């Protein structure tokens, strides 16, 4: 060996030594980052306190699960991107005064607004005119069922029957925490669970075994505790889902007909009406997303990553507000294109829904006129049955969220049959008119705005609002005071 | 070095030598296979003969493009998998006798069958009762437009105007080769081209530059030469697409109303009717496949690989017959699931279509009864306008292939408006009846089968069939004989 090669080798060894040092240092940094992120996620998943079995306060759960709670609190944000929702306090009766006529004699004709986020559930049920005021308080306990994490607790302690048949206002100081953690989660394991008996009872009547339900099904079923069609059964107002014959508009109508149920008698037409609630789950079940195994939570509560932690976004909202994390997980189109695709479906559903609404409004007013001109019970019976069926079918689509997007083809099928039945009723009404010597076409009253329509159907809005104000100013603060002293704290939303 | 290591190295070298020989041999085999496959594909793409500019004979083109021609010939296979198509000679008038009433006074009430494959185009247009016989030959040359590769040749030589205004029967010996190669391809380059002036004229009136059309658009537009809504304009029966205001049912209806066009006056109701042809392209353009850039050919003529050659399958057919190569190129679901998905849409469209059909049949018969009871022109005018609009909208969906699948949401929207209008017409008819003292509900004639319905609308089927038989036995053989002597050969299908 020469001096030269020996020096060369020394330089090489020194170089290798320092290169190794640098590489090892960088690896150390990377490892630290990984440990940190892992630590971050583990730290936050370790509960900081025990949660009692029926704890209703979301903020207590939130101490253990700050990310879920923080995103849940974003349901207080009421801005919607969808052109069909816009701001979440849209007054539908203002926008569609036909609805006042369609619901004449029913509390929906007083007040019907675009729903706000879950965190507003208590505030909004207290404020809606449908729950009345101090003098007029028409609702049973059943009406609280979907509004609060206090409900599972009360059902546990009182029993479901006693809970439902209470007076709504008698439970006011007990039901103060809005829809939240307790409604869907088991407090020890955070497993999803069904806390509302009505869903379990309905599924069991269908022959479904609760123990066979998968986690992915649960990610829709926890929503189906409330986002469904239901009715208050019997004098005890027992909350019941009319699913025994199936989910479809046709099956549920047939169920109601078989038991001779009506929600109310229409004030103008005297038809024995059905009010659809919000059969979101049922409509969704007929659509392509359900067929492909996509759960409610996949679009309305998509996964989110913050720091090192992946978790479910509890800001439950329209996927149109969050296309990147919902739609685009599966669909590779641009946001603009996907929004356009949704609107193309919704626009068509809205067009046909409007035709059905228009036809139903005319039909109710014409039926009222027929009665006034001496139509007999016998003459009116087939007309009123058609009206009941038509409006139920219209409402099955109209009352469901999403403007039919959850299943546009089924929505349009059902609306098609609504138009058929409503127009058939009008055809029969023409027969009655000509028999009674009423000149055709008949002249119908102008009900072109919410106020005029409400006055026409006999509502004294001033009195109703005064009673509500009295309730908000004098009753609600008492409820909150008692609730705070009972549970030790009360979060304001 | 020892003897031992030297022997070891020798063995290693010998092993490496033979291993190399084997590997090189295998590579040689692979290369040969690749060259062979490439050669196979190139050999078949080299034309074996020149094809004259307006060559109508598919079998001549087939000599150069045997794969395409062989698959084209499979359009002779008339079995469909779809439950809505089944065998391709379904007699729709037998299955839906309401159609006889809906088309009373129009040739469709004589004969309307499920279409067969392209290769049957000549055979079937000669056989349908809509082209008449020897004594009664009602059609103009326009009626050949979509049936034959002879059409571009004749339009080239005669001019479009002269071609359209000829008598259909006068062109019989000239138009003998069924829909095929010439209709969509340029014979030198095989580029797609539009050979029918009506499509080019319609697109140009819409302001579309033909030079800007992409290849992918052409893969739908060659189909849109025929699978569209069209009418025979003016006394010269100039083939025209009513697209000037847009593609939708609403836009085309508005176009027809503006020019005061009617296809015929309804024999029973006297309504000024429109007959939708098969607006497949227009309906498809409103659907998700068009939105996503999927062309007609992607589903109806998917790519196929035989030997080393990838080519377009010219067995044009329902994708339901070939789900693996059409749907499953994009959709990862099973065949069973995809078929179920298609039927779920089609079943709903069929249900609502049936409601519209039923309503329209009643409306026409009731309008006839109103006339018989002395209804005036003035009383009937709004009724007949509603009937025209309703039936057009029903037909826009019903006449299009795919039972609405090309765009189920739009199909159901349009059918919803058809029901609305037809039922409104019936409501007005009830007014007329009661004015005229007709007891309601009115009694309508039984038209429950094709034969009874055809008799009711005054068709003498025996005479019509006898005339057709005379035509098939005496005229058609003459046409074929002359065609054979003119073009040198005539392929039978």
What do you see in this structure?
Two copies of one chain form a homodimer. The first copy, chain A, contains 20 helices and six strands. Chain A has helices spanning 3-45, 58-64, 66-73, 92-95, 98-102, 121-127, 150-158, 160-165, 181-184, 197-205, 215-224, 249-258, 280-285, 288-291, 296-300, 335-372, 377-398, 408-435, 450-456, 461-487, and strands at 231-233, 238-240, 264-265, 272-273, 303-306, 309-312. In chain A, a hairpin with a 4-residue loop joins strand 1 and strand 2. In chain A, helix 16 (335-372) runs antiparallel to helix 17, helix 16 runs parallel beside helix 18 (408-435) and helix 17 (377-398) packs antiparallel against helix 18 (408-435). Chain A starts with a helix and ends in a 6-residue tail after the last helix. The model of chain A has no long low-confidence stretch (mean pLDDT 93).
Set out the fold topology:
2 copies of one chain form a homodimer.
Chain A: H1 3-45, H2 58-64, H3 66-73, H4 92-95, H5 98-102, H6 121-127, H7 150-158, H8 160-165, H9 181-184, H10 197-205, H11 215-224, E1 231-233, E2 238-240, H12 249-258, E3 264-265, E4 272-273, H13 280-285, H14 288-291, H15 296-300, E5 303-306, E6 309-312, H16 335-372, H17 377-398, H18 408-435, H19 450-456, H20 461-487
Antiparallel strand pairs in A: 1-2, 3-4, 5-6
